[in-house]
Every structure is written in structure tokens, then in C-alpha cells.
Amino acid sequence: MYGGAKALFYAISRSAVLKRLASRYGMAGAAGFARRFIAGETIDDAIAVAQRLQSQGLLLTLDYLGESVTTLDAAVAATREYVRLMDLIVAAGIERNVSVKLTQLGIDVDRATCVDNLRRILEPAGRHGFYVRIDMEHSQYTEMTLEIVETLWEQQYRHLGVALQAYLFRTDEDVRRMNALGARVRLVKGAYKEPPSIAYRHKADVDAAFVRQARLLLDEGTYPAIATHDERIIQAVRVYADNQRIPRDRFEFQMLYGIRRDLQASLVAAGYRVRVYVPFGREWFPYFMRRLGERPANLGFVVRAWLRER
Ligand code: FDA
Questions:
Q1: Phi/psi of residue 280, each to 5°?
Q2: DSSP label at 136?
Q3: Residue ID of nearest Cα to ligand 1 atom 43
Q4: Cα(91) to centroid of ligand 1, in Å?
Q5: What mean pLDDT, rounded, does the chain reach?
Q6: CB–CB of 53/60 below 8 Å?
Q7: 199 three-state secondary structure
Q8: Most exposed among 6, 53, 115, 277, judged by the fewest C-beta atoms under 10 Å?
């Protein structure tokens, strides 16, 4: 999955200097093109986009962008921002659903503090009827993330679920593990660079794994989320669910903000539940670079937008 262009964008996404510059410079001006994929820099921007999507019959999850924090102060600040975000979501009356990253809550600095930060989000989330999804990052975090979900689940935090990445060899087992627990899974192909010793490299293998795992989730899982823009896979899932007589409200499709809006709309029109992942915040650079890497043709769109703005 990591051919030339993808690897290049991935390397750029990891550049601390570019990330700092992008955050400082902001999304105004030349970086306005990033708005195709990112709702904006502020919570107000995100809520405005969410209201628009909700009025189109789409479901939502809001993601406050940020990852790989290196200080506890930054992790605490991100936690506070999530709590503030939830207050504003309640006030705005939009759907109560957020996505978080453990590296944003400080897992690289101190695992226990990261879990405390997650609890600080889960507590008000529970009181206000939110659902909280943990995004999955590099494979070095996979086991830790699942252990944290299991621990919190034991502690009765049941409004919590996780993303699993089809490209990892281990994921069939992880799907069974989360199915047995009863936790909801968002299945994605996987967006990070992983070594061939632990992950499929070829698209055909990733796609086959995705379909296999999606079936396991539909058969035995709890309200799975099938998160892909891949029409062939979506079609395969639709056919399987129909054949197994799985009602359309027992699972949902998920897509990223700004990607395949036509497909999002047609699935809603066909009676499926479709959730859009709406990212916002100043730390938009790594997320944006991963999206460019997935489809280098997006670069053409970026260049055209940039030329228009000049
Ligand atoms: P694939 O990359 O094969 O693309 C299939 C088709 O979709 C393309 O031909 C194109 O038409 C369209 N498409 C895909 N990406 C596009 C783009 N960037 N721009 C324009 N068109 C595009 N990953 C992860 O590792 N951890 C996570 O927690 C998450 N979370 C997550 C949530 C949600 C809701 C989604 C949809 C995705 C994620 N991902 C993720 C990202 C995921 O791993 C994957 O990188 C992307 O979804 C792209 O893969 P596709 O499944 O769309 O297939």
C-alpha cells in the first residue's frame, strides 16, 4: 500500500517543522484548500459544518485534530478542549459523538495519565449521552489501545469503541476480541506506514482482509462501522448484509469529511446510516498529508485551488 507518492506524503506528514509552520500559518490564505477535508480551525467552524451535514441526513463524529503530543501540558490542554467541545455540541443540539487519539491524550508521555485524560472525557461524555471512538494509530499502539479499551470496559465505560485496521495481520483476532467484549468497532483499511512483517502491502490483500473482517463484524459484532470510500467493498458489504438479513440500522457506513460526498448522499438515499468524520483544529497538517497520500490526484485539486487564490 505504500508506493512512491504515498510514502512521500507520509514522510512529509511526519515533519515537525512543516507541522509547526502549518499550525502557525493557519488555514487562511494559501492553506484554504485544506478546507475541502478539514472543517476549519475552531469548534465553531466544526459545529457549523456538522449542522449542515446533519441537515442532509448524515450522522457525525467530530475530531479535534492533534497527535503525538510530547508533554503532559499539551495532553491536558487537548483533554480540556474535548470537554469544551462536548459542552458546545450539547449547546448546539447536534449529534453527540467524538473521536479521539491516544497520542493526543499523552500516551507517549505517560500511559496512566493518558488513561486518566481519557476518563476525564468519558465522564462528561457518559453524563451527556456521547459516544467516544478511539482512532487507531501506528501498530506500536494497537495492543495498548485494546488493553485500555478492555480496562475501561471492565470499569463500566460502555460508551467507548475503537477503530481497527484491516491491513494488520493481527486484525482478524482483534475483531474477534472486540466482538467477544461487545465493544463497537470501526473497521478501516489503515493509514500509517507499517512493515511487511506485520501488515499486508498490496491493495488486493488489504481489501480481501477488510471484507473478511467486515463479515465477522456483521455476524458477531456490536453495531459495526464500515469506514471506507471503496465502492466495491461497500457493495460487497451491502450484498452480504442483505443475504444475511441484517437490518440497515444494525451497522453504519463511515466516510471522511469532503471525500466521496456523492457516495455518502446515495447511501443515505438508499436508507443506510452514514456517519461523516469531521476533523477540525489548528493541527491539520499530518491529517491533511495522509489524505493527499491516499489519493495523489488530490494534489491536482490543491494546486488548482492555490492558483485560483493567487
Ligand atoms: P482506498 O484508499 O482503497 O480508496 C478507495 C476509493 O476511495 C478511491 O479510489 C477514491 O475514490 C476514494 N478515496 C479514498 N481516499 C481518498 C482521499 N483521500 N481523497 C479522495 N478520494 C479518496 N485510518 C487509521 O489508520 N486509523 C483510524 O482510526 C482511521 N479512522 C478513519 C475513520 C473514517 C470514518 C474513515 C473513512 C477512515 C479512517 N481511516 C483511519 C483512514 C483509512 O485507514 C484509509 O486510509 C482511508 O479511508 C482511505 O481508504 P479507503 O478505505 O477509502 O480505500
A1: -150, 165
A2: P
A3: 190
A4: 31
A5: 93
A6: yes
A7: strand
A8: 6
* Rounded CA separation 209/230 (Å): 13
Contact 134, 105 (CB under 8 A): no
Query: Measured from the CA of 294, which atom of ligand 1 is nearest?
Result: 18
- Residue 50: CB within 6 Å of ligand 1? no
Distances in Å between the Cα of 295 and the Cα atoms of 43, 277, 302 are: 27, 18, 12
Q: Which residue has the cell 469544551?
A: 84
- CA 233/CA 248 separation, integer angstroms: 16
Does residue 30 have a pLDDT over 50?
no
What the block records as the C-alpha cell of 300 is 491536482
186 is catalytic: yes
Mean pLDDT of 255-279: 97
What domains are defined for the chain?
1-38+288-310 (no CATH), 67-82+100-260 (3.20.20.220)
Tell me how far the alpha carbon of residue 230 is from its chain's centroid. Answer: 16
Instruction: Name the more confident of 300 and 236.
Output: 236
pTM passes above 0.90: yes
180 or 5, greater pLDDT: 180
Which of the following is catalytic: 135, 174, 207, 230?
A: 135
